[in-house]
Structures are given as structure tokens and as C-alpha cells.
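Example record

Each entry pairs one chain with its bound ligand, zinc ion.
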Amino acid sequence: MKTRFCVLFMLIFLAPSEMMAQRRKTIVDIIIKGGTVVTMDGSHRVIEQGAVAVKSGRIVEVGKTAEIDRKYAAREVVNAAGKVVIPGLINGHTHVPMTLFRGIADDLDLQEWLTKYIFPAEAKNVTEDFVRVGARLGLAEMIRSGTTTYCDMYYFEDAIADETFKAGMRGVLGETVIDFPVADNKTYDQGLAYSDRFINKWKGNALIVPAIAPHAPYTVSEDHLKAARALSDKLGAPIVIHISETKREVDDSLKAKGASPVDYLNRIGFLNDRVIAAHVVWPSDEELGLLKRLGVGIVHNPQSNMKLASGTAPVPQMLKENLPVGLGTDGAASNNDLNLWEEMDTAAKLHKLISNDPKVVSAEEAFEMATIRGARALHLDKEIGSIEKGKRADLVIVDLDDLNQTPWYNIYSDLVYASKADDVRTVIIEGRVIMRDRRLLTLNEETIKADARRYRERVVQSVGIKTLPED
Ligand SMILES: [Zn+2]
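C-alpha cells for the complex follow.
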């Protein structure tokens, strides 16, 4: 009798109170729970049995799974038990449609590679359709390897923005302007007008940050560089540019302008805290100080610099002085992939070898360059780069039990030295699942590959490339 009364009591009183507790919970869109959360916040917190609550594209809260469970209920729960949850990786420099020139000409120096192969191949092949096909290929490759934001500079950037937005990916996208006729614009003025329209069209978009990208100080005149800066000032848009990539660029600049590229750009009033400078391989100590004072973002591209033998950027010094330096792949023609995991691994190892000091560029620092420090390089660190309340929900779930990851002791060592792009399982950008369990949800891999192969035939015919085996 007593037991029956108790059961009755629980049915009448406890069940409704449990329901009340459920009702008191805040409803969010997604909760990722049970994983090891590598936050990359100010104190680099790593939360075991962690959870992340996401609503309307933003991170609502991050903490222990038990805490998050008490406060939130979600429409979609993603189980990350036994896995690691990281901020989406940031590819700070690429030319995404150049995936279609992957392997077109390798083992050359920058000048020969650019002038004999890349510029002619671009002149004969680049159209809006080419750019769209190449962008889709690059986007798929980046999403599958856990990149959630990339910084681009190419032609027809409006089409790239359209493809990026449709894929659900985040991008800082710069229309390339240069002092010779290119595929989308025949004069510099046309390029500027295109950039003006392009930036106005995409400004304020949740995923796309439109930018202007004067190619380099050696391919764009002083007046034209100033005009690009004026457009950036007028529209508040970032400027993406290559600076000090090779020793030859520095020597030529000293001869022609009496100043190194960084000094010259500073002298003409070009540099500020909206500039994103790719490479910066050959700066002096004073120039690094200048870039720091002005707040210029820097993107290090270790594999591209190694492949073109451009030199070794002083990254240990940049880190010591807390400069905003991120990591990039550069275009697929000089890398030849868009895989940030390899860049992290290479960055950590290259600088140890060059400086003869295994303590420089630790695994944790390399991971930081691919996440929060990379966000600083793109001037987006208030929005992305770490798993923190209020930031945009760009989250990647990575396996932690593959053979190459087992066993693990230090999470950063495991991520940087042992994990591979294939270990990425699920990708969320702006609170939307873009890849689930390695299946792309916004792009069709088979169609992308078929389209790319079609372009390969055209490229081979247009520039007479020798292929192996011979076609
Ligand atoms: Zn580049």
C-alpha cells in the first residue's frame, strides 16, 4: 500500500516537475556534447567532457556537458564523445580557383613559375565558369579538412563569393587588381569599379567579408595602390596583398624605389590595420616593429615558401613579439593542396630546423596560428578563431581514436603532429552543419571532380603542358 502510494506520488508530482525543468531549459539549435573541447580562448582552456551550445549561428555557452545539459535543450544533439571539438581552421591566404592549375608547373622559382606558366595559363583559361568550378573544388577540399574560413584573392571574386555563400563557408574575399589586363577587367580603373560594386554588394553578409586585393607592390603602381587604399577607406573593407615574398622582390624594390617593400608601402601611406599581408618572408627587425605598430595582419605560407624556395619568414620572432600571424596554403598551384593540417605541422618543424632550436614554434603555437592568431591576422578575432560565448559558431569535430592518433598525451601535439585532414568528421559553420560524418551536405563531390577534369583537358591544350604519362 505504502509503495503504491509512493509510485502514485511520483507520477503525480515528479513527472510534472521534471517537465517543468525541461521547460525551464533554454532551447538552442545545436548542442555538441561529450567531447574534449579545445577552446583557444584567452587562457587556452581545454574542457574534458565538454559541450558547446549553439543558437542562431552563435556560440551561446561552452562548458562541461553536465552544466550545459542542465541549462539547455537542443533541436539537434551532436555526440562528440571520444572526439575533440576545435575552432574551425582558418586558411589565411589562397587563390581558390587555382585548384584547377594544381600541378601545372612544379619545381620552379617564383618568377619563372609566374611569368612562364601561371600568367599565360590564366590569360588563356580564366573565365567566370572556370573560377566557379575551381572555387567549388577548393571549397570542398577545405571543408573536408576542417577549414571554416579562408582568405582569397583572385579574379571574378563576386562569383567566388556566390559559390562560397552557397557552400555555407566563411571567406574574406579580395578582388585582385593588377596593372595588366586580366580575365575580368581590362584596365585598373575597371578593376577598381568592379571592386567597389563587389564590396557594396556583399558588405554586411554573415559569411562573406568582401575586400580589395592589389596583387603586390611590384605589379601595381604607386597611384593604383593609393587608389586601392582610398577605396578600402571609403568602404571600410580589408586589403589583401602579397608583400616581401622573395629576396629578389626586396632587392628590386631597393633598386627601383630606394626602399624595401614594407618601407615603400609605409612611405606611400598604404599600410594600416585593415591590411592582410601574405608572406612577409624578408622583413627587417624595424619593419616587423612597424607592421606591429600599424596592426597589419601577416599570413605565413610555409609549404608554398618552401616549394618556391622563397625563403623562411622570421616566424619565431613574430610570435615572440606577439604579431598577428596566421597560416595559409597559398594557391593549389604552389602547394599543391589546401590542407591546413600540413601547414601547421610544417610550420612547427620548418622553424625548428632553420633556427636550430626545437623549442621554437611549439605545437600549441602552430595550432594557435591556424585558429585565433589567424583570426587576428584577418582582423576577425572578435568574431571567430576560438570557442567562446558570443562568437560565431564555426566548429569542427575531429576523431581522436584513429591509429595515427593513439595513444595521445598532449592534445596540441596530437592535433598538430599526428592528426590528419582525414580525421575531421563534422564541420559546422555559422551554426549550420556543412559536413556530417565526412559527408558534404552543400557540395557534390562527384560533379565537382567531373567538372575539374573537363577543365584539365582545356588547360593541357591551351598551354601545351607535358603530362606524365604523355597524353
Ligand atoms: Zn598568393
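The pocket of zinc ion is lined by residues 93, 95, 242, 278, 330-331 (CB under 6 Å).
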